Amino acid sequence: MFHRARRTNDPGPAAEALRLVKVGKSYGTGAGAVTALDGVTLGLARGTFTAVMGPSGSGKSTLLQCAAGLERPDSGIVRVDGAEMTGGGEAELTRFRRSRIGFVFQQYNLLPTLTVAQNTILPLKLAGRRVDRARVREVLTAVGLGDRLGHLPDQLSGGQRQRVAIARALVTEPRVIFADEPTGALDTRSARDVLVLLREAVRVHGRTVVMVTHDPVAASYADSVVFLADGRLAGELHAPTVDAVAERLAHLGDDVLLEV
Amino acid sequence: MFALALRSLRKRPARCTATLLSAFLGAAIIMTFQSMHDTAGRPGVDRVSAESLSTAASVVGGYGTLLVFFAVASTLTVNVRQRRSEMELLRCSGATPAQIGRMVVGEAVVIALVGAVLAIGPAMLGGRALLGVFQDSGQVARSVDYSFGPVALMSGIGITVLAAAGAAFLAVRRATRRSVPRRGARRLLAYGALALGAVAVCSTFAFSARDAALMAPPAYGAILLSVGCALVSPKLLTTVLDRLPLPGASGWFAVRNLRRRAAELSAVLMPLILFTCVATATLYMQAVENDAIDASGLPKSVDAKNLETLNLVVVGIIVVFACVMLVNSLYAATTYRAGEFGRQRLAGATPGQVLAAVGVESVVLTVTGVFFGTLAGLAGILPFTLVRSDTPLPGRGPGIWLGVVAVAALVTVGTSLLTARHAVRAPAVEAVTLAA
Hints:
The structure holds 2 protein chains of 2 kinds.
Chain A: H1 2-8, E1 16-27, E2 34-45, E3 49-53, H2 60-67, E4 75-80, E5 83-84, H3 90-100, E6 101-105, H4 116-126, H5 133-142, H6 158-171, E7 176-180, H7 188-203, E8 208-212, H8 216-219, E9 224-229, E10 232-238, H9 242-259
Parallel strand pairs in A: 3-8, 3-9, 6-7, 7-8
Antiparallel strand pairs in A: 1-2, 1-4, 4-5, 9-10
Chain B: H1 2-11, H2 17-40, H3 47-82, H4 84-92, H5 97-136, H6 150-176, H7 183-202, H8 216-242, H9 248-261, H10 266-296, H11 302-336, H12 338-346, H13 351-389, H14 399-425, H15 428-435
């Protein structure tokens, strides 16, 4: 139902799903200040699957949080689906996020008191949009949970919980889905299922996915990998393979050492 | 383990504020009233004055001990629950349940001691003021001097420390023993309290209108009924919630949330129901008693005055403690949910929507608590009024009840919203990781 509603008041997806211009972010003040992001400029086309990689402390989580409107950058511009994320209150930012962005986190972040189906429709309820039960069932069936609609999150395995989170991110039909270490807490097999679902979201449903990960295997599911070191971009890799990503990661450390 | 207890107290003093506050209040009240024993024991006090003083001290002493125990137990249970991860860490590092128990009990004893010592000053002032009240109403002779002696000191510190140690022992035993909650015992307790309460309330009719002890059965009956109601209320709340279509995303969310958390909510409903019941029942019964004495045209006897003072004092104590327990368990429950609020916001809830859901939840809680509290209170008021004045309803309007409800609503909704607003102020991502 909301396919149609959306099309009437929306010019349609922009060609560029995400655009960051000289985004900077630092934590703390004075001598103890840490620069997490140092003028990052990045553009991601619609319908792409991008992995963001880098050593611990390289700023990859900060990058994702700034791009997703969970953190406010100190400087620079963030544009999601052609709309600039401006200042304003937390409520305004929330409305911006829920109309354009879906999330998948390492810790699932499902609400323990709601069933699988209720968790999935929560973003629609909160946005005051109509809930199409058939569509919700369809999305949950697509992630392999069609027979568990009434279960509570703690009755599910980690992999199943993450698939609920993906269904929740898909059901609002967001322009961009941000995934922060989505396979970080999963076994290999569940991780593979989750990654295939994320890739399908891009290939089949035309979403744009940005995934932060430290795992070369997870990154190899993406169309391209963006490397980050010390809060700056440190190269890009198209059509990544596990070995190529691992090798590049190993040498990222070297580059940083050379600079010092 | 005791060194560890002291260390954890020194590093995280704020965590113990609620326990310290209830220990302090409890010790202050106990010492205030026990100092009446000291005062009565002074040489040259006449028999009537001594009896007034001793009665007050004994009655409130018993009540006070129970309340200190419950209040400290409630704050410690919350404290222990919040520290589950710390205890898990200790358990994994090789601490036996007994060692963890010693740590928590040690902490509780230290806090209780500090609270009791701090309470000495205020208790002296309070005792002096109380004696003044007794003297002004003519229950105690003017010539009696105030004395704060060994009875007040020993019983104040002793009772507070013992209650704290006992409450801590029970709280930590519940936390470290990973047993399933016994449903049957709870139900038995609930039905037992309801049955005993009903018997007590009905036995009111066995007394004559002039009996001095007439007020006791309905008052105790009402308290027992409210405890029974509090024990069965989560189940009834779930039934009501199933048929409650609340509008908006926040309403939808609040109803689903409450239904799942119904069992945990008894910690909040218990003081709320008890507060409403005791305050309503005692105040109305006293009003009826006063009206009846006025109607009879006789001057008030010292006994009647004693009874009135005691009633008001007991209401005051229960109100203060129920408020402390209510604020503490609501504050803890809401702080505990900071991670949940973060997750709601990550799912697309604005801070306003999170607060609205909390608001709806606390309004539903208040209505439930006030409803059951009033029901239990009425069960005590009606028989008493019927026996005392031959009419089923008290001659007073709903003014007292409205006042009680206003306090209950203010405390419940206010605490929840203020705490939630504080929790929502942190960035959503941080709130989620902190709780994880």
